[in-house]
Amino acid sequence: MSGGIPIVLLTGYLGAGKTTLLNHLLRLPGIRSRKVALIINEFGPLGIDGKLVAPGDYTKFELNKGSLFCICIKTDFIRTLETIAREVKPDLVIVEATGVADPCDLGQLVDSPHLKDVFRIDANICLADATGFTQVAAFLRTAKRQVMWADGLVINKCDLVPVADVETLKGILRELNPDAPQLTVSHGRIPESFLAQLTHRVRLAPIPEAPLAELASASLQTECPVNEAAFFAAIASLGGGLLRLKGMVCFSDRSSFVEVVNGRVTEKEPPAGLSGTAFTVIGWKVPKDELVAAFSRCW
Amino acid sequence: MNSKQRVVSALRCEKPDRVPWVPFVGCHAGALIGVSADDYLKSEELMVQGIQAAIDRYTPDGIPVSFDLQIEAEALGCDLVWAKENPPSVSGHILIQNRTLESLAPLDLKAGRIPLVMNATRRLRTANPDIALYGLITGPFTLALHLLGTDIFMKMFDDPDYVKRLMIYCRDCAISMAGAFVDAGCDVVAVVDPMTSQIGPDQFREFVTPYVTPVFESVRARGAYGSFFVCGHAQQNIAAMCECLPDNVSIDENIPLDFVRDVCLPRKISFGGNLQLTAVLLLGTPEEAQRNAIACMEVSGDTGYVLAPGCDLPFGVPPANIDAVGRIARDPYEREVLKAKVSSKASAELLDMSQYGGTSDKIIVDIITLDSEACAPCQYMVEAVRKVTPEFEGIVEWREHKIKYRESLVFMTSLMVRNVPTICIDGQIVFVSRIPARDELIAALQKRINEKLRLKIAQRKASVYILGDGGESCRSIRANTEKAVRELGADVEIIEVSDERKIYEFGLTPVMLPAMVVARYQVKSTKVVPETAIIKEWIKDV
């Protein structure tokens, strides 16, 4: 392993449980015994994440540049790392990245000539929230990219969803990143051994985002009545390719608020004020055109 | 042609007398006049002083009046947290706090710091009639994120109608703000929407295009020009951005400039940006800043390009670096001098590559990239090579040379490579800025393997050692060998060894004699002193 101060990077979409995991990490004996510096890279309400981190024997830096993104935050990040190297001289740096931080940017920063001999990335851990990952990742590219760049994947909040949903998510994550070991947990409680088994892979060529082999979303809308049999047949025919569907559907005899999660269909009374058919679907390995075509045949 | 005309000419996708230079001076203007970012951004007087100082010092062709994407959010009721060396941050998203979308009033142009910025614009306009003034507004999608936070990504699925209603609201705010800037005297309205880099083109067309296009229409209707700013990994959306019909698309260093050029120019949309903000302008030297500017201008060509950084200049950016870029933009002589200087400096460090790869047993594939992690074409080129090499079962080795590192730059220059990404096979440039199809790459490698095989056969020389006591059997071996050499016409030296000590060095004992050992030699270089790096390659083959 090369020299330099090790950095553990935590990524994951807002709400995936990064702060909970961070607090858990800080209590692990192998980490508690080390001199730790934290970098909390905020995007959400300022200071909230920082305040949630349990008090302890560590030095904390917050990057609160919520207004600006990507390239603009790099200056602050470099400055913070320089300060840490100069003033704190820790044994370990843990970076809790914002949910919209592109992990390859952070990797590049450490790889830059100014920092590459001072720091090294030890592990890039990405949290995926079992309850909402597929929903968010269909819209937020960074959520997928964080998974693709991870050295280890922690599937959190597994207690909140059926086992079958966790298995589906594991399959999706494995396809996005076949090399990263996976761990299913609740409340971010990862064992120290998981951390120890991770090695940071410097990717010469990152996995390209293949448009067809990923999460696709489509919004559908129509004024025509929806053929009920055809609609449910479309859901059945897509099978595992349809991860989620949500929205209003006007059948010939009724209007329903339909939700489909991994094949489980629920119908509810439509919320007041909603009318007409308008729903969104998220597919896995089904191109957007096919998703649209499958449902457009229903009216 | 004055500065404003120059910028306008570029924005109209014409060829100005030279490439216009627009440094995005935001809170850095505070540093120029010795005040903190928060003091600067809260004061009309300081803003006028700071921007005037930037104009006087940098003599730009255009300049933004302010670069602060929180102005609208603040006027709409979002709390801000101020910083000494950065623009403020939004610290609370009002739509997840105590407000509903329906309760939000239209943007009040008298609220928050909007009057301050508009007054500053008017004063700077009067004082600088010949410069292009940019009014920067928060793009509708980024403003929506300020109001709702990242919940917006959830809501795109849960409640897309809500997101669309929110986007309509943000569109109207943007149109109001753009109108105010034009009325105050701005020539260009920049719609700065960095958060769009987070979504793909499908979502962009659904949630951004319908709401940004009318903003550009309104700017055009008022006789001004519209620029669409984005930063981050937004390459996937450049075409969709063009469909919103801005006059200009401005990007940062994360997107290859040639890609943007090739998407924008055929659509008659000008483009700009791409100067490296952190690594070069902030942390580099004036000469590095100038080289970066030259590189941008060489890629962009002289039509429809605005030389600019990818985002607002950091507070503490060394003014000497910004001065240096300005000189390069204005002075073709200085540009030529530096280009000459670069080549003379590079040649002093050139490696002698004449023997590179040629006599190694393996085929060496060098991929010269900006950085495969940051540059998509580089990534795909590396990927193409990575996928093919296992089929050659160890005969083909590949390496990526990221030119952000000095040694890679020297290597690139030594191989006479001028464009990235480029694939060199055994030191020969084979694919330039083009990702080869799999079969094409395999064919190129196979061709090189065949060439090398012929070369090696021609270059090989051998010795035959006959080990023994020099008696009858050794003489028979010698006679047979001489006959074989004669019949083959081979260049083989025959050496008899009878010294027991030497025979042991061959790993043989007397009971194993007579024996015959064939040793082959390869000529690796002639009449040159090979570089250590090259000798290493040869030794690895042994």
Helix content of chain A: 25-40%
Q: How do the strands line up in the largest sheet of chain A? A: 3-2-4-1-5-6-7
Q: Mean pLDDT of chain B, nearest integer?
A: 88
Query: How many helices of chain A does DSSP assign?
Result: 11
What class would the helix/strand composition of chain B place it in? Answer: alpha/beta
General shape of chain A: elongated
Number of strands of chain A: 12
Helix/strand/pairing category of chain A:
alpha/beta
**Could you tell me the radius of gyration of chain B in angstroms?**
32 Å
Biggest sheet of chain A, open or closed, and with what strands and sense? 7 strands, parallel
Main sheet strand line-up of chain B: 1-4-5-6-7-8-9
Largest sheet of chain B: 7 strands, parallel
Low-confidence stretches of chain B: none
The quaternary organization reads as heterodimer
Report on this model:
- The complex is a heterodimer of chains A (299) and B (542).
- Chain A has 299 residues and is α/β, with parallel strands linked by helices.
- Chain A has helices spanning 18-27, 29-32, 48-52, 71-88, 103-111, 133-137, 141-148, 163-176, 192-197, 228-238, 288-296, and strands at 5-12, 36-41, 58-63, 92-96, 119-129, 152-156, 182-184, 215-222, 242-250, 255-261, 264-268, 277-284.
- In chain A, the strands form two sheets. Chain A has a seven-stranded parallel beta sheet with strand order 3-2-4-1-5-6-7, sandwiched between helices. In chain A, strands 8-12-9-10-11 form a five-stranded antiparallel beta sheet.
- Chain A is elongated, with a radius of gyration of 22 Å.
- Mean pLDDT of chain A is 81; it is low at 44-49 and 66-71.
- In chain B, 47% of the residues lie in helices and 15% in strands.
- Chain B is built from 23 helices and 16 strands.
- Chain B has helices at 3-11, 28-32, 37-41, 44-58, 71-75, 114-127, 140-148, 151-158, 160-184, 201-207, 209-221, 238-243, 257-264, 277-282, 286-300, 319-330, 332-348, 376-388, 406-414, 438-459, 472-488, 500-505, 532-541, and strands at residues 62-64, 80-81, 89-90, 132-138, 188-192, 225-229, 248-251, 270-273, 305-306, 363-369, 396-402, 422-425, 428-432, 460-467, 492-497, 515-522.
- In chain B, the strands form four sheets. Chain B has a seven-stranded parallel beta sheet with strand order 1-4-5-6-7-8-9.
- Chain B is elongated, with a radius of gyration of 32 Å.
- The termini of chain B are far apart.
- Classes of the chains: A alpha/beta (299), B alpha/beta (542).
- Chains A and B meet through helix 4, helix 5, helix 7, strand 8 and strand 9 of A and strand 3, helix 8, helix 10, helix 14 and helix 18 of B.
